[in-house]
Amino acid sequence: MKFGRDFEVQMIQEWREAYVDYRALKLMLKQILRFRQQLPAFHQHHPPHPPPPAPPSSAPGAGNNHDEAGGGAAVSRGFTRRISLYRAFSGLTNRAKGSPRKRDKHNNHHHFHFFDEEEEQAILISQDETASYTTTFLSSAEEGGELEVMFFRRLDEEFNKVVRFYKQKIEEVMEEADELSRQLNVLIALRIKVENPIADLPEIIGFYSPPVSPEHHSSGVPAVSPMETIQEVEQENSVHGNRNKAFIPAPLEVLDRVKIKIEPETPLTTLKCMISSLKPDQTFSKSELKRAEELMSRAFVEFYQKLRFLKSYCFLNQMAFSKILKKYDKITSRNASKPYLHTVDNSYLGTSEEVSSLMSRVEATFIKHFAHGNHREGMRSLRPKAKREKHRITYILGFLSGCSVSLAIAIIVLVHIRDLTSSEGRHQYMENIFPLYSLFGLVALHLLMYAADVYFWSKCRVNYRFIFGFEQGTELGCREVLLIGSGLAVLMFLGVVSNLDMEMDPRTKSFSVITELVPLALLVILTVILFCPFNVIYRSSRYFFIRCIFHCLLSPLYKVVLPDFFLADQLTSQVQAFRSLLFYICYYGWGDFKRRSNKCYESDVYRKFYIIVAVIPYWFRFAQCIRRLVEEKNKNHGLNAMKYLSTIIAVASRTVFQWRKGTYWLTVAATTSSIATVFNTVWDLVHDWGLMNRNSKNPWLRDKLLVPYKSIYFIAMVVNVMLRLAWMQTVLGIREAPFLHRRALLTVVASLEILRRGIWNFFRLENEHLNNVGKYRAFKNVPLPFHRQELGGGTKNV
Questions:
Q1: Where are the domains of the chain?
Q2: N or C, which end of the chain has less CB nearby within 10 Å?
């Protein structure tokens, strides 16, 4: 794989704008190359400079400094992509000897001259008082020199951008490390107070802050890294006369100025926090200690991940500068890479050691205080292994997919051979059995659409794992989702084949009890699998789904996060599935399933619940919007709540119109549905997708697009509008279609809504990803447990 493509894959997508624009620099080099190829006489008057001699094979890193364009053929094919990416790059690790650096001052600028006696100087690099680097190309008078001047100007812009961003992030992590150190001091004091309040203090693990030397005060630089507070000190034991390792504890008095502030995550904890806030004296319990330790552990893991990202960011950009300058030297036959890369190596980007130092200290701290000294366990938490692709998943997926297709064909053949479409029991089957199996079909279709979304998110590099908050290594890829969907389809088709009888037994005047219970047994099996406590069938994903469902059920009482309201949006597209669940209760509870008869649709109670279950998913979203409106004070959440309220009214009026025909209810259903459709469509396109921006670089789209074909967005907008009009079949009174029973028609309409939701999912998450990119947001914000109490009654971080 070429470096440019590998560079795109390895970069942190949320920081994409902060990386070197390698593609733009490469295009500029191609312009220089084309210009030189059009001037063959140029090389006759200006013979190329001989390249510097290659280092001997015994030198460190020899043979690893080839570029993929020119010297790539010389690289051994046995090197893997990862090895080729992380190999040493010339100019940064292999510093040329005999290249002294001279420094002088002129107009408050620092000029750096890099040259050998036998080499012609190509560039002059200077640094102004704002720490910005500027390169002067010394051969600009040559023909085509203006292109090289533009190249170095753009290179300087990218280099200064990278250095500024890296320095800014380093300052942020240093401040965060300082805060984590203070939080950890308080946590140790809390452990002492809760677990062993009468222990001998000199023997308990704690922290101390080394004194600050005068020279550090004068320089404005902290005496030690914030993580230096985690130190073990040796003291002379005057009693025994030997040197024993002891520890200086955190003073317990710090707890008098600290308040444990744990974000309420359940209605019960919310109530407890409200009650505890009224108490004059603060108490510390083991449950609070446990929760504080969990939050601190998560904060350290996220902080360590940020350090790893910064280290990768630094290395990849250094590699990009090395690659692009070697390309420049190859095209122009100059020796500009050595001085420029020497500048990169001596810049803040190349000399900063804060990240490496902090990483080692975080590792030691986490292992000591959160992994009970177990190095393997601690590093497993800090560096979770990436998910490995398993061939058996592909094999099982192919097998189940083939079985589901074969069973579907078998059902079609059986229906044709038995001529079941003209059977007398056809209507009875469609009214009683078909709604039971349609539930599984709608869920399987939704899984298929979600698998397609995951595939295209991965292709477009949408960081859906970070957006949804999946733990590394636990997220389901498109193959795993397809595996679940195909398995569900196989179970459904097997049930249909076993329960495809249309006529009752003439002797008993009823159907077989075993076959009639197949749909209910299938529902029970799937429910058991969903709540299975054993670590089988993607337990972490199942529990994540159950937790989000539970949050939706109690949505006003939980803090709203993206996975919760995203799932609630999915549920709004499964209204027919909710109604099928209601039919299960009525059919097997009060109906005569042995004779395939029921009076559900004639019951007033059933009709009321028929409306309620259709409204419940929209109520989830309405309640979530109200919660966010109260917390965030953003009027957009209020408008979103009004959107779902209009949808609730439209769904209820359309359902009532099915039972009560007449001009009045027709007018109400058509009017409310039209208002809800316009409201929802505009919100989808403008807010959720971020489109319909007339002043954008891409008219009526966004400034940034992940799909290279703009027509895809316009097609998606048109399809979204058309599929949202599927409700018109209810208002227009379309009861049946050619070759389709009315129950089948309802299932088709519900399937169209699921298809629309699948399309919506992709563009909704694309917009969320681009918002994260615009804000360089690549990490989860973990709330810290301790806050310092101020005299005025307020609180702030420790």
A1: 170-306, 391-774
A2: N
Cross-strand pairs, 736: none
Instruction: Give tens-digit pLDDT for 562-596.
Output: 999 999 999 999 999 999 999 999 999 988 898 89
Q: Are 450 and 761 in contact (CB under 8 A)?
A: yes
- Most confident listed range (2-16, 99-113, 119-133): 2-16
The answer to whether the beta carbons of residues 71 and 327 sit under 8 Å apart is no
Q: 3-class secondary structure for 479-497?
A: HHHHHHHHHHHHHHHHHHH
Query: Distance between CA atoms of 494 and 286, rounded to whole angstroms?
Result: 52
Distance CA 407, CA 489 (A): 9
Q: Is 73 exposed, middle or buried (0-12, 13-18, 19+ CB in 10 A)?
A: exposed
| Backbone CA torsion sign across 522, 527, 528, 532 | positive
Distance from C-alpha of 763 to C-alpha of 771, rounded to nearest angstrom: 12
Segment 23-65, tens digit of pLDDT: 999 999 999 999 888 876 545 445 554 444 444 433 333 333 4
Tokens of 252: 């317990």
Whether the CB-CB separation of 467 and 768 falls below 8 Å is answered with: yes
**173 contacts 355 by C-beta, under 8 angstroms:** yes
β-sheet bridge partners, residue 597: 592
Q: Which two tokens stand for residue 4?
A: 């440019």
CB 630 within 8 A of CB 638: no
User: 731: which residues sit within 8 A by CB, 6+ positions away?
Assistant: 654, 657, 666, 669, 670, 673
The string of DSSP codes covering 260-282 is E-----SHHHHHHHHHHTT-SS-
Instruction: Please classify residue 16 by burial: count the beta carbons closer than 10 Å to its beta carbon, then call 0-12 exposed, 13-18 middle and 19+ buried.
Output: middle
Whether the pLDDT of residue 624 is over 90: the answer is yes
CA distances from 202 to 142, 366, 367, 508, 716 (A): 74, 22, 22, 86, 68
What pTM was estimated for this model as a whole?
A: 0.81
Q: DSSP class of residue 683? A: I
Nearest-angstrom CA–CA distance, 623 and 704: 32
Look at residue 91 and give its three-state secondary structure: coil
User: Comparing 52-61, 318-327, 526-535, 636-645, which segment has the lowest mean pLDDT?
Assistant: 52-61
Identify any residues that bridge with 114 across adjacent strands, giving them in sequence order.
Answer: 101
Per the rule left: phi > 0, alpha: psi between -120 and 50, beta: everything else, 495 is alpha
Q: Containing H/E element for 104?
A: strand 101-106
How far apart are the C-alpha atoms of 203 and 746, rounded to whole Å?
Answer: 72
Which residue from 746, 670, 4, 774 is spatially nearest to 320, judged by alpha carbons?
4
Please report, as a single letter, which amino acid is at residue 474. T
